[in-house]
What we know:
The protein is of the alpha+beta class. It has 5 helices and 9 strands. The strands form 3 sheets. Strands 4-5-6-7 form a 4-stranded antiparallel sheet, with no helix packed on it. The chain has a 3-stranded antiparallel sheet with strand order 2-1-3. A two-stranded parallel sheet has the order 8-9. Helix 5 (154-167) links the parallel strand 8 and strand 9 (173-176). The model has no long low-confidence stretch (mean pLDDT 90). The structure holds zinc ion. Zinc ion (ZN) is lined by residues 10, 12-13, 23, 25, 27.
Amino acid sequence: MEDILRTFWCDVCKVPIINNNICTCGKETKFLSNDLRPVFPEERKLMFYLTQDKNFLNGYVWASKGLFYYFNGEQKKYSLDIFNNISQTDLLIDLLQNQNLNEEYELFNKEISTFVKNNSLRLNELQYYSSNIVKESVKQYSSSLPIISFSGGKDSTVASHLVITSLSNPSILHIFGDQCVNN
Length: 183
Ligand SMILES: [Zn+2]
């Protein structure tokens, strides 16, 4: 199991490929980043508002730490200055809460589906590997009650899904805890 995450970009499928310089379509990929995350429609809208960069509206947007964004596989870095001019917070809240993002989500969900499809081998491998860790841990501490610390964020949602499916136990105890700490 490789520990280092490296993501690549396929120009044909327009999707990041994890730890593989060849896409499932057969095309050679180019290196993108060691850290990559999806950019949800709300964030794309917010970033467009802050930067006026139309790239945020055109799809194929990914990001990595430190305000690095990738548009169609091309890297662009923003500075923290983009947050300096936020004066009308009411307008901003309205922009994010009251807009219909159905079309944007349709596009976003298509991008994520392609990502899952083109990385299915790697994702299945990760799921299999994690599932074994969960099963082994429960076996090792068989006299203890397994519980999930759940905040509702992306990490604990994935952990919850993995534990429930690995143990085939949908009624496993969840304890809500949110430290409000994020990286
Ligand atoms: Zn491809």
